[in-house]
Amino acid sequence: MVSGKVSKLNLWELVVAIILGLVEGLTEFAPVSSTGHMIIVDDILLKSKELFSPEVANTFKVCIQLGSILAVVIVMKDRFIDLLGLSRETDEEGNRLKLTQVIVGLLPAGVLGFLFEDYIDEYLFSVNTVIIALVAGAILLLVADWFRPARPKVETVDQITYKQAIGIGLFQCLSLWPGFSRSGSTISGGVLLGLSHRAASDFTFIMAVPIMLGASTISLIKNWDSFTLDALPFFIAGFVSAFIFALLSIRFFLKLINKIKLVPFAIYRIVLAVILYLIVS
């Protein structure tokens, strides 16, 4: 299947779709870099671009992100209802996260991503740059845990200030470097700015929805010609797989993050970088 269209799918192609959905769902929201995992699992091991055209394979990777987005919306549905002004509930102190705070957090990376998209695509999407980003991101995770305030100033995301929101948004700019990890940069930034690990994770996941939805929509529009009805089973299998595993991983991560903090993820990233280096060297 080397053309831009996909013909009748066989069982292996559906297995590839499910595996890639699993990788996307498990790694998209943890601070471990979904890009690094996709390079190892797909570009090196499964090689979906040899099963399909590069256009179809790339469009598929965008499509399965929508499954991960849906998982976040379901897990945090009450929070999004609040942000849209459809609930009047407040916490015990009368606070509630505001939509404007989320927008403030999104602006820095949104502006830089728009200005430097072509440069990032041309110069930063390589195995070597991803390996460096994995290590650099691991260092940031370690710094966040070692130099965080002794006691968090913000225990829940409802207590976040506009200053902290813009600060986390600036840290998120690091995630424009493929392999650095959006979750890793924003959670680390939040922790350094005085948020608890859980509050930083909640804010990160909330910001992820408009970011990923916007990026996925733009990419799908650009590559719409690669999407055909023949490809539908492949796309559906990956979407459902990403949704299910993202749903499980998000719930697990949010329960675990305040207990294990960030050091284990930093160690994992360094190990992943070494494995990736050994594979490609």
From TrEMBL:
Q: Which family does it belong to?
A: Belongs to the UppP family.
By what name is this protein known?
Undecaprenyl-diphosphatase
GO molecular function ontology, one term from the record: undecaprenyl-diphosphatase activity
- Keyword Hydrolase set for record: yes
Q: Which domain of life is it from?
A: Bacteria
Q: What gene is it encoded by?
A: uppP
UniProt cross-references to Pfam families, sorted A to Z: BacA
Q: Which chain regions cross the lipid bilayer?
A: 12-32, 123-143, 203-221, 227-250, 262-280
Q: What else is known?
A: Bacitracin is thought to be involved in the inhibition of peptidoglycan synthesis by sequestering undecaprenyl diphosphate, thereby reducing the pool of lipid carrier available.
According to UniProt, the reaction catalysed is: di-trans,octa-cis-undecaprenyl diphosphate + H2O = di-trans,octa-cis-undecaprenyl phosphate + phosphate + H(+)
- Organism per entry: Laceyella putida
UniProt subcellular location: Cell membrane
The UniProt entry lists membrane topology as: Multi-pass membrane protein
